[in-house]
Amino acid sequence: MKRVYKTVAVTATEDGFGITLDGRPVRTPGRTALVLPKRALADAVAAEWDAQDGKVDPTSMPMMQCAATAIDRVAPNHEEIARQTARYGETDLLCHRADYPEALQARQAASWDPLLDWLQKGRGVRLQPVAGLLAAPQDKEGLARIEAELVALDAFRLAGIANATGALGSIVLALALGDGRLDAGEAFRLSRIDEDWQAEHWGLDAEEAARATRLEAEIADVARYLTLLTQD
Fold first, then answer.
1. Are 101 and 68 in contact (CB under 8 A)?
2. Given Cys at both, which of 21, 89, 120, 167 links 126, Cβ 3.0 to 4.6 Å?
3. Among candidate residues 172, 176, 151, 184, the one with its CA nearest the CA of residue 74
4. Are 72 and 34 in contact (CB under 8 A)?
C-alpha cells in the first residue's frame, strides 16, 4: 500500500501503547488493535512506520511483524506455540554432533557444551548430545519444565523466543539469547558451527551466503525485539 499518512504517534492506552497514523490507530494484519506492552517497543514500531517512503513495505518493519505475530498468532494459540517451541529440545541443534572428523567434534563440544551446562545449572534440564543422524531420547520431565516456562511467558515474549528458536534451530540458544547469556552475533555464530566448517573446507556458494546473511539479520531483529521488551 502507498504511504498516505503524514504523522506517526505513540499513544497511551489502558493496556499499553498504541500507534496512530494521522490520529487513526494501527491494527494488525488480523485487524486486531495493535497494543504493545512497552513504550520502547512502541517507539521502535512507530519509527518503522515513520521510515516508510512512498510505499509501505512490511518486510522492512521487523518490530511490527514480531508484535503482530504475538497478537494475531501467538496469543490465540499460546499453549500450542509453547509446546511446539519446547519440542525443539527433542532434536536440538546443540545435541546433534558429527561422528567425524575429530576436529569438528572438538569444535562442536567447545562451542556447545557450555550452553548445555548453562541450561542444566539454571533450569535443571540436561539435554544429551549424540553423534550421527539419530536423535537421543531426551529428559521428558526437563522438556516439560521448559514448556511450562514458555507457557508462563506473555504472548509478546513467547513470540520472540519462538521466532528465535526457529531461526536458530535450538531452544537452548533461544533461551540463552532471551536471558542475555548470548548476544545476537554469538547466537548466530553458534548456530553455524557446521556450516562454517563446511565453508572453511569446501567454500561457500552464493545461495548459501545469501541465506546466511538473511538469517543473521533475522536473529539480530529478534534479539532487538526481545531487548525492547525488557525496557520501559
1. no
2. 120
3. 151
4. no
Confidence of residue 134 (pLDDT cuts 50, 70, 90): confident
Give the list of residues 6+ apart from residue 190 with CB closer than 8 angstroms, or none.
Answer: 94, 111, 112, 115, 173, 182
Identify which of 76, 57, 79 has the alpha carbon closest to the alpha carbon of residue 147.
Answer: 79
Q: What's the whole-model pTM score?
A: 0.95
Strands in 17-21's sheet, in edge-to-edge order, are: 8-12, 17-21, 24-25
Question: Measured between alpha carbons, how far is residue 9 from residues 25, 42, 111, 180, 221 in Å?
Answer: 9, 9, 44, 30, 22
The answer to whether 19 and 42 have CB atoms below 8 angstroms apart is yes
